[in-house]
Amino acid sequence: MSGAHIVQIVAGFIALLVILPLVILPYWKIFGKAGFASALSLLMLVPLANIIVLYYVAFAEWKPRPAGLTQG
């Protein structure tokens, strides 16, 4: 394995460590608090699906959870 491949692998792991807290986590909390499945946040990584999910959430009826049940 060449040095360039190792750099690419390390850069990929660093990108994952950055993407998870900066993209997935906020959407996870927003969708959960709005009453949707928190796992919808994983679709934010999929091009075009992220736009469809945002429109769905924006125009759907929200069923907010009580304050003590916002985990998940």
General description of the model:
With 72 residues, the chain is mainly alpha-helical. The chain has one domain (3-69). The protein is 58% helix and 0% strand. It has two helices and no strands. The chain is elongated.
Mean pLDDT: 87
What is the element string, with H for helices and E for strands? HH
Classify the secondary structure makeup into a structural class.
mainly alpha
Query: In one word, what is the shape?
Result: elongated
The total beta strand count reads 0
- Helix count, DSSP H or I runs of 4 or more residues: 2
Kindly estimate the percentage of residues that lie in beta strands according to DSSP. Answer: under 5%
Helix content: 55-70%
Radius of gyration: 16 Å
Count of distinct structural domains: 1
Pick out the low-confidence regions.
none
Regarding quaternary structure, how should these chains be classified? single chain
**Distance between the first and last residues' Cα:** 41 Å
Main sheet overview:
none
